[in-house]
Amino acid sequence: MQQSNRLRPFFENITFDRVDNEMILNFGPQHPSAHGQLRLMLHMQQEQITKAHPDIGYLHRGMEKMAENMIYNEFMPTTDRMDYIASSSNNYGFALAVERLIGLEVPRRAKVIRMMLLETNRLMSHLFWLATTALDIGAMTVFLFAFREREYLMDLIEDYCGARLTHSAVRIGGVPLDLPDNFIGDLRKFLDKLPENIKDYEDLLDTNRIWLMRMENVGVISKEMALSWGCSGVMLRASGVEWDIRKEEPYELYDEVEFNVPVSDKGDNYARYKLYMAEMRESAKILYQVLDMYPDTEPALMAHAPQYISAPKLDIMTQNYSLMQHFVLVTQGMRPPVGEVYIPTESPKGELGYYINSQGGAYPYRLKLRAPSFWHTGILTDLLPGHYIPDVVSIIGTTNIVFGEVDR
Amino acid sequence: MRAYTPKDNVQKKPYYTDRYWVAPQVAKHDVSSDEVFAADLEAIKAKFEVLDAYIQVEQMVVVINAHDNFAVIEMLKNERQYNQLSEMSAIDWLASEGKFEIFYQMLSMSKRKRLRIKCKISEKESIQSVEKLFRSADWSEREMYDMFGVVVNNHPFMKRILMPDDWEGFPLRKTYPLQGDEFAAWYEVDKIFGKEAREIIGPENRDPARIDRYDTERFARLGHEVPRGTDITHGEPDTPLVYQENEGVFMIEKFDAQKSVVISDRHR
Fold first, then answer.
1. Among A140, A337, B209, B216, which residue has the fewest nearby CB atoms (within 10 Å)?
2. Which domains does chain B have, with CATH numbers?
């Protein structure tokens, strides 16, 4: 007899054929190393996985639905909650998509500041990745080291926009603020120390026997598999595909800075780890160049497009027409032209794309968020079978999935 | 009389509309302006019917018949080097046309080009899965089914992905309210306690935005605290505020602005 106050045992309509020795292991959704709310249903033969079903949706907030009921500027803080480890890159992807839809050109200083935000976010994200993955595998020291450096970067971002995690530091049409006085000096100080820090991590991990055993030849993704599963970012580059959107389809000032795209053809966890480390160095390289660009820019921060973008605060406070425009844009929202765009950007996790279908209204008719982690979680279906239980943790670690982004 | 609310689209509407407003269009360019896209389009046109094709924001958009979707994408993958399906989903046009528009966003890494294949199906129709060509479509199609109710044929595991399996309704349809429908409001109650518990619990307790200003059991009113459970419907009693640090709590001191130090350099 079913008790009415109990949850019925509920196996998601999956019928399991009874084979002897087969065990079903529920990994998550509250597993500390599942990096959020991932539930994996693993079919096990002894310690070996024969079948894996990632189950997602525990953090589903319906962001695409929310976007359809919001004006464009209102949606900006919501994008923070996708990849909350590097929220400026989400803000940026959305801002860029709307700007391309409208056809806006952003002032150069805003571009420089955006580049700084994007790359500091990439560093933050990679440091966070390193810290949590190392912690999952048992390297507590690396966790503490990497979080220390990430803390400096969070302080820097806090100096810029006041927030540490959910920045909303990019606006459609530019950036809201100029850099504070100490920002450039502090960032330079941080960057000068970064190579030492990265060397510290590598000294701890590169030749570490445990690390190598957990990483080398584990979770090998072939080139075909990575392409077929829509992998992007490090997940794709570790499998031998040289594809970095910053390089191939440059946006902002990425065509003016010099940097390399590290690639590996191994496709295993260790290759991905090496690429993350290499990318941090490349980010630092980009940041040095962008810091040098900053002094030669004009002070304008927002694009001039009265139909879509509010005038600078000084104009709003002194000129009646600017105030009226601002009022209309805040209360009714901008109305981009009728059309659709899909704009991909290279976020720290991979290809972050925004598809916007505008019907000329103040709300997007349809907004699709192409979050890289979604497919990086999906690939676990094909990747995990054949591996052992401890490998699950290290594979989830190196896929660098964030559940704000998977479930949206 | 109650205000008219359309049933086919419950999305938020702007409160102000200018009836003389003519929305501008994002420019659509002719496909012949780009050699690579022109060649791709020729290849598609040679075998399939193309309803519309143009370039918008540097990406080609090709509108095809829905029953050609698998064959077109197969050809683009095998013959035209479009090696990744970056995204696919649907758009709800049920209110205006009674159709779903399905788009496939494809990427060619060797040509550095992105194109979008679009097709329309009516609500009762289903579409062919492209999961055999791109594994990424496995999860995308499940998401599309989950959000729109578009059924995909030949899919290996057609099942909801983000919403629970026993969910009713398709959240991204324009007919689905943002706050969720009645089923959504009672989902947990129905599942855990059964439908008969709805009356006992009461609809007011399923409204996440509800605040009862007289409820002193669950809501603390900052600055106007009263002992828990006090009846304040007829005015509230004076409750003197006592701060714990006044009594002398271990390790806690009252903030003294005179003694504070401002740190100017954080030694980065």
1. B209
2. 28-153 (3.30.460.80), 177-232 (no CATH)
Q: What angle do CA B235, B239, B242 make, to 5 degrees?
A: 160
Residue A407 belongs to some domain of the structure: no
Residue of A36, A212, A211 lying closest to A139 (CA atoms): A211
Q: What is the pLDDT of residue A2?
A: 44
Segment A226-243 mean pLDDT: 91
- Given B134, B172, B194, which is nearest A65 (Cβ)? B172
Instruction: Evaluate whether B102 touches B150 at the Cβ level (below 8 Å).
Output: yes
Q: Quick count: other Cβ atoms within 10 Å of Cβ A76?
A: 20
Closest in B171, B266, B268 to A65, CB measured: B171
Which chain B residues are Cβ-neighbours of A7 within 8 angstroms? Answer: 191-192
Boundaries of domain holding A295: 63-356
Distance of CA A26 to the CA centre of its chain: 27
Q: Which residue of A has its CA nearest to B57?
A: A341
Instruction: Check pLDDT > 70 for residue A131.
Output: yes
Q: Is residue A5 part of a domain?
A: no
Beta carbons of A337 and B24 less than 8 Å apart: yes
Of A241, A337, A342, the CB nearest to B23: A337
The answer to whether residue A58 sits within a structural domain is no
For position B206, what pLDDT does the model report? 84
Q: According to the model, what pLDDT value does residue A372 have?
A: 93
* Listed residue (A43, A50, A119) closest to A86, CA to CA: A119
* Chain B residue with minimum CA distance to A192: B268
Question: Using alpha carbons only, what angle is made at residue A117 by residues A336 and A58, rounded to the nearest 5 degrees?
Answer: 75
Q: Do A351 and B192 touch (CB under 8 A)?
A: no
Computed over every residue of chain A, the mean pLDDT equals 88
Q: For residue range B81-97, what is the model confidence (pLDDT) as tens digits? A: 899 999 999 999 988 88
Residue A201's nearest CA partner among A118, A280, A122 is: A280
> In this structure, what CATH number is given to the domain that contains residue A142?
1.10.645.10
Q: What is the pLDDT of residue A1?
A: 43
Select from B135, B159, B178 the Cβ nearest to the Cβ of A229.
B135
Tell me whether residue A14 is in a domain.
no
Contact A342 B91 (CB under 8 A): no
Instruction: Kindly determine whether residue A69 and residue B26, on different chains, have CB atoms separated by under 8 Å.
Output: no
Query: Can you tell me the ipTM of this complex?
Result: 0.85
Which of chain A's residues have a Cβ under 8 Å away from the Cβ of B139? 374-375, 378
